[in-house]
Design brief:
Blueprint (H helix, E strand, L loop, with lengths): L2 E3 L10 H5 L5 E2 L8 E2 L9 H5 L5 E3 L9 H9 L3 H11 L4
Antiparallel strand pairs: 1-4, 2-3
């Protein structure tokens, strides 16, 4: 199990989750519209979930409905950042 950041983070990117993560498994570059959790590095502590001001973080097996696709999107960012950025844009076009 790993935690997953979902759509509520898009264009918010508060970074509170990054500040509290004890294993530094949450990332987001300046070019990103959201943050991403590395599924292999997450230790499932849940600290990030409670730190998120927009309730965008869920345990992978508890992702609600449409948010299920964000499990793959979080993992994709670590393989192909441009593809992940394109997927975010498809989900929520730039303002």
């Amino acid at each position: 199990m790993a935690f997953v950041i979902s759509a509520a983070c898009i264009d918010v990117k508060d970074k509170s989750c990054i500040e509290v993560c004890p294993v530094d498994c949450i990332y987001g570059d300046a070019d990103d519209r959201m943050c991403y959790i590395h599924p292999g590095d997450c230790i499932d502590c849940g600290v990030c979930e409670s730190a998120c001001p927009v309730q965008a973080i869920f345990p992978a097996e508890e992702l609600p409905g449409e948010a299920v696709r964000f499990a793959e999107l979080n993992a994709l960012w670590f393989r192909d950042k441009d593809a992940a950025r394109g997927a975010v844009k498809a989900i929520k076009p730039d303002r």
